[in-house]
């Protein structure tokens, strides 16, 4: 078994703004694991907020490589070999091992997991922070998507959301990215509900869990946790503060932990969404293979980049469509 990694510079179609900052490019890392003539692919999209970058992810993959003795133990191998705090590297190795395992069995990953590919959800398309005029333009360009997720966190939030609602009848979700405080939150929820918004993602900072719990008691809209949840062990204490969780492979460390999170969330009566960072079709497709198990998907990361180097899961009439090739089923473009 040979483990290697290659830098991936992903240029974005539009500058992407959220409450914490803006970016034009993503510095991701592709992981390749060769075994018995097969090539398994994985991708790390390191999260700066959690002290990861491409260099630390590459180092972590190098450290994990000699600990990965048996690729057949794909369910736990990446978690057993992981470097503390380097979740995106763990996720990349984990998805490459799952890719290899399903290729070995000659079936798509969803089939190896026993999932029905016709049960994939629609995916939302994310509209980053901008002036109302630019947001309206982006909304017009996103008419092919079944649901829009609008980022909040500017002083213009209400004007932006009202302009979006005047432009489209598409269902809307909003992501506050921890940007609210208790003050003003109730009135904000009231006008968001009036605009027909479906739910709010991470209204307040992760360390304000009791405030979130208090706000939810009278909230007309459900809350989904994103920054508040990384892995399955985080979920029990979130019950009652959030209605659902947003699972991202880059936060939790891969498909094995994501499956555990889905089970724990269900045990607490919570909804599940699958989300992403800005990622190529390698990592997006890995997450998409789990999507028949969830209520909502926000797997638009590969659509936000200018030239996706891979083909994998696609979006048809807003719904995720899984490739039926063995493994993850991703192939390099132009080959
Ligand atoms: Mg979010």
Structural descriptors:
335 residues; alpha/beta; Enolase-like, domain 1; TIM Barrel; 8-stranded parallel beta sheet; 32% helix; binds magnesium ion
Task: Describe this structure as you would to a colleague.
The structure is a single chain. The protein is α/β, with parallel strands linked by helices and 335 residues long. It has two domains: 2-106, Enolase-like, domain 1 (2-Layer Sandwich); 112-332, TIM Barrel (Alpha-Beta Barrel). 32% of the residues lie in helices and 24% in strands. It has twelve helices and 15 strands. The strands form four sheets. It has an eight-stranded parallel β-sheet with strand order 4-5-6-7-8-9-10-11. Helix 8 links the parallel strand 7 (197-201) and strand 8 (223-225). The longest helix is centred in the first third of the chain and has 19 residues, at 87-105. The radius of gyration is 19 Å and the shape is globular. It starts with a strand and ends with a strand. The model has no long low-confidence stretch (mean pLDDT 95). Bound molecules: magnesium ion. The site of magnesium ion has 6 residues, from loops.
